Structure formats: structure tokens, C-alpha cells
Amino acid sequence: MKQIVLVLALFSTSLSFAQEGKNAEQEKIIEEYLTNCASKYNYNIQMSERQTCLDEGLKIDSTIAYLWQQKAMPYFKVRKYEVGMEFLNKAVQYNPERWQPYRGFMKCIFSKAYKDAIVDLEDCKKKFGNGYVMDHTYDFYIAVSYLQLNEYQKAETILQKYVDEIYRDRQQLEHHTAYFYLGIAKYELKKFDEAIAVFDKALKIYPNFSDVKFYKGVCLSLLSKKEEAAELFKEAKQDFKLGYKLNEDNVIYELYPYQLQGYFVGL
User: Fold this and answer.
1) Cα angle vertex 265, ends 261, 266, to 5°?
2) Which CATH architecture has domain 151-267?
């Protein structure tokens, strides 16, 4: 089945985040100034109009965390991370349990502030337990951050624990992205045979995962299995062209760590 990039958009006002007011009056403010006002404006061309709507709501009640998050969201989308983070910090101030994990995710995937992401998410674990944000546990994003800081052993340990826990919990499906990053950690540690075994688990779930095929091919090449590697590189290129790529929701906004790009496969 061809990859479909899901736009569940953590950024969409249709998400369950929307109705976050603590009382009826706050819900009314959200409806009037977000749903009926800010949501009418496209942030790409009418950022100031959208922000004005939200500011009017916050003048009435500055403690509504969701309005602060909605002020932050479009700035992250247009890569004005420092501006957006100021507003997201306010959302965390007024509702840390909901928005601090999200802030850790944003630091990891959007603003690429990996050390800060680790600090934020470790603090979340202490206060709230190792919960989920954007389909993965806090530990997942901590591990990805360690990958980006070249601390591969830490990343491998955390990701191995993560995939083991997913496998043990029969109510959850094994996750191909988790296997992808575990394989990457092993590849960076030069455990090429182990990396290939993990990449194969990802391919069992998502057989056309071009990113995985490419890095598996790299491992095979480094093991002097040139013919197998060449075949996988050919498949990766074809699958990449057909759209079978890393399919985390937010790849439509940001390049994820180790995500395959056209120049890798000769496009």
C-alpha cells in the first residue's frame, strides 16, 4: 500500500487539544477568538490577523494555555522557532502536563535544540511518567536527540528498551520508525549485522520503507556485500520516487534526523 503522509496535524484546531478551557467561560473565549476568529486566517499570508484574534482572547484571560500554544504553532511552521518558543513557554506555564511534553517534541524535531529537548523530556518523565507525545514515548525523542548529539550508545540503549516494551505490550503495534532509529544507532556503532537485523524488522512492517532500504544497503556495502547492497540501493531509489518514505506526521513540516533525501539516492 502506497505511503500516505498523515496530516493529523498536531497543529490543527480540530484536534482534541482544542477544548482545553478549564471552565465554561474559557471554552467560550476559545470558541470566539480561536474557532470563530483566528481559524479564518491562513498564517502563511495573514499571520498578524490570526495573532490579533488570539491576543484579544488572551486580554480577557491570559491563563488559557491552548491560546498560547496556538500563537506558537504557526511560527514553528514557518521556522521562526525562537518567536514560537516564547509563546509555547507560556502554554507550558499554564498547563505543564499537556504542553511540556509537546515542547520537548518541538525542541527535538522542529527547533533542533537537542540538549534542551532531553532536559525537558527527562523532567516530564519525573513529573508525569514516560507518556506519549506525537505517537511515541518521551524516551523515543530523548533517544533521537542523543543520536543527533553523537551519543549513539545512549540512543541504542533507550531505543532497544522502547521497542522491547512495544513488543511486550500486545495492545500496541510494533513501530517501523522505532526500528528505523534503533537500526541507525547500531549502524553508527558499527554493529552492521545487528543493524541489518533491526532494519529487517522495520521492513516486515513497512516493506517499501526507502529510508530503511538505503541504510541497510549501506551496512551491506560496509560488510563487502556489494551486489546485495546495489540491489537495495536500486529498490530504495524506486520506492523513494513512489513516495514510500519516512511517514511520521510532521515530515510535511520538518526534515527528521537521518531522513532520506533525493541526493542520497541520486535523484
Assistant:
1) 110
2) Alpha Horseshoe (1.25)
